[in-house]
Amino acid sequence: MDFEYRQQGSSILISWPDGQTNNYPFIWLRDNCQCPACFHPSTHERLLFTADIDPDITALSVTGGADEITLHWDEAGGHESHFTGEWLYHNSTAAPKGGTVRESAVLWTAESLHEIPTFDYMEVAGDEAGMLRWCAALRAFGIARIRDVPRADGTVVAFAEQVGYVHDTIYDRLHNVYSDPNAYNLASTSEELKPHTDMPNYFSPPGVQLLHFIDNEAEGGETTLVDGYACALQLKEEDPAAYEILASTDVGFRLASSKGDIIGQSPLIELNNRGFISTIRYSNQLMLPLLIPGEEVKGFYDAYRTFSRLLNSADNLVKFKTRSGDMIATHNHRVLHGRAEFKPASGARHLQLAYLDFDLVMSRLRQQQVAEIGADWSVERFY
Fold first, then answer.
1. In this structure, are residues 69 and 33 in contact, taking their beta carbons and an 8 Å threshold?
2. Residues 142 and 59 in one domain
C-alpha cells in the first residue's frame, strides 16, 4: 500500500491514498517493531519489554520507498525497525469518532432488513466455507438463521462445538424451553416476551445465543428481533441526554437457579474506551431496583422509556414465524430477541438453546484470513 511520510518532532506522519493522515509516535513504532528480536517469529508475542524503551527515543534516520519504511534507532547497539504500508494502515493510531459501532456492523431496521441471512444446515455444518459465510453474516448483521436442522436432542450443542465450545451458565448447557405451568422463567410460560438480551447479569454475557426450534407448531409465538446497536444510535441522535444517561448509569440484573445466583451491574448501553457501543444489556424482567440518587431517578426512567419505545417500535422490530427445524443465532451483545404470546394447547412447542462466545465466531474469520495471506499481523483485526 503506497503512502507518503514525513517526520514531525518525535513522530512520523503518514498520508494515505484515501486522504487520511495518521500520526505514529517514535515510542509506539519502537514498541511495535516486528523483527524476530522484538516479536517471537512463531508465537507472535512481544519479546521486547515495553517499559525498557527510552521514553525520549528518536530515530537517527528514516528511509523507505512508496510502500515501506525503515527507522534506524538512537539506542545502544543500534536497531532497525521495518514496517510495510499495509501493516501501518491496519494498525492505525488514528482515534475513531466516539458514539458509534464498528464498520463491520451492518445496522438494520424492520424496513432495511429485507431478508434474514439464511443458510441450509448442511451448508454450514458440513462445509468449512459455509461455516465461514455463517460467521461473516453473524458478524455483520448480528443474526443468522439455519434451516432444516435435525430435530434431535442435543443438536444445538453439537453445532456450538463445531464453531468452538459451549459457554456454560448457571442453566444447563443444553437448555430446554417448554411451556410449563410451574415455570421458573418467563421463557417457560406462554406469555409474550419483550425483546431482551440474555444473561445481562453476567460480567461477560455469552456473546451468541443459539436457539433450536425442535417443534414450533403452536399458534402464535412469532419470533421478534431488533438491532440494539441501531436503536441506541437512534436514541443518541434523537435524545443525546437520554443516551448519555443510559450509557453512564449502572443497572443491576439478577438471575438464579439451583446452580448459582449471579448479580451484576452495568449500563444498558455499554461503551468501550473509544466510545464505541460494545454491548447492549436489556432485560426488563431481570432488572433490579435502581441504586441511584433519588434526584436522578426520573431522568433515568424518562431515558429508559424512550429507548424501550425504540426497541419495541414497529419500525425497528422484525417479527416472523419460525419453522420447526430452524436454528436462530443472535449476537447477544447486540441483537435483542423475544416472542409473541402463544397458545400452548394448539400444538407442540419445544426449543433447545446453548450459548457460545462471539470471540469464537471472530476467531474463525481471523484464522481463515491468516490461512489465505499468511500469519502476519497486517491482517485486519476484525473488532
1. no
2. no
